[in-house]
Amino acid sequence: MFDQSGCTRMALTVVHHPGYTIDLPANHPFPMEKFRVLRQLLGEQTLACPIEWHTPQPATLESLQRVHTRDYVHAFVHGQLDRAAQRRSGFVWSEALVERVRLETGGTLLTLEAALATGLACNSAGGTHHAHADAASGYCLINDLAVAAAHALALGWVERVLIVDCDVHQGDGTARLFANEPGVFTFSMHAARNFPARKAKSDLDIALPNDMEDAAYLAELASWLPGLLAAYQPDVVLYDAGVDVHQDDRLGYLSLSSDGLYARDHYVLNLCREAAIPVAAVIGGGYDRDITALATRHAQLHRAAADVLMV
What we know:
Number of helices: 10
Strand content: 5-15%
Structural class: alpha/beta
């Protein structure tokens, strides 16, 4: 675990690769351009501290197979997913898609490694929490959170990983992958009536009513997270900072403002920082046809992270 007194840094580690963005048909519902625009915005904005950019390598097949079946990984990598499987994923298979997914997953692996070294690091993508051991779902083909957690455990970097999932959708894939793994605790705080229709059982699920606004949301989070950190005492937190909880998100049923997003992210990151628990953060879901507005919401995570570093 990092030495908080010796590793307070004047730069925020952010992981990014241009390959996070690939070409999709103009009418595709997934906002693929948000990763490119987020990188552009972060390069233009003045944060509380400068960004130190890191470039990931594609995740290895070995790392993917720690949580996904060998047959599924082979079918995905070699373009052998049938039409039904591709439909469930939300994407038509391509070599570019495979490379993109492996880069995103490699990015979360690198983010976790950097967090363990420095105390706090952010990916500019990641949060594909619907991917299951043998199937894709909901725009998630490989579960980067699960791959990173399993990797850290396998290499002996940590003994306990806490996944704090604040995306508007339940992290059902992650919950099922770690249902029998005491080294990973899954916490999902999500809209009760949103996708997926059939929920998994996380170690702790907080199902929220539609249209919940900032104050009630933040109070709910504060009623659970401090006790969870104290009870589980994780060696690292993987934080999914989905912005689809925003009031203008077209797939979210909650009503947080942009200020609420920032307050949520700052609270989670600062709480962990005060407890000397490293945090690796990913951006999670967010769906808006206004890509600049969407990327600006995602950038709240990185702004909050920079502010936490400077405390």
